[in-house]
Amino acid sequence: xxxxxxxxxxxxxxYFTATLVGHDEALERAVADQDAAHLPSIEVAPxxxxxxxxxxxxxxxxxxxxxxxxxxxxxxWLARGIPADGTVTTIEAEPAHAAIARASLERxxxxxxxxxxxxxxxxxxxxxxxxxxxxxxxxxxxSNTIYLDWAAxxxxxGTVVVVDNVGxxxxxxxxxxxxxxxxxxxxxxxxxxxxxxxxxxxxxxxxRKGWDGVAxxxxxxxxxxxxxxxxx
Length: 232
Description:
about 230 residues; 8 helices; globular
């Protein structure tokens, strides 16, 4: 058996990507345009994008909420996973990022399914109508509990909630690490484990983006409680 190293894990990720995801010009152009504009290289890995796509299909999602658009890479995956009359509402704080995402979405042929909302998510979320079938959270980690609370408020029993970057290279399990993005991630995981509105698990991931993790939850039949007693 091959020894587990980061290089070996990345080779396996490359194999999974080539075998199960393959070449996709629209997705690759989306990342290339994002990189050319010097946006942060923090989009999900291809295998994780495919996971989002499959979760949308498996759950039968018609209305998807994405918190954190960046260059639109994950948005394309999500939009492809919903029906022709479905909608992805995606929130992006930076207008320049949203413009790049819009161009990539149009080129991928899914622009008609996507509603980009500009602004800070904590300010945009209260303006949304709700009843989302899938929520993908991939924005500032310091606000994960706020985003999870709104996911519960805007979803319904059975809504799938996905939170990216929950492993932080193992730092979330180290109480000595107190960086805000780590403590925010940790608080989100604690919320997923204690808030009765969620039933959740998390998986470690090692891919071309490094060592991290993803949490996956479903909203329970108490998801209509307000969450006012739960500290964000």
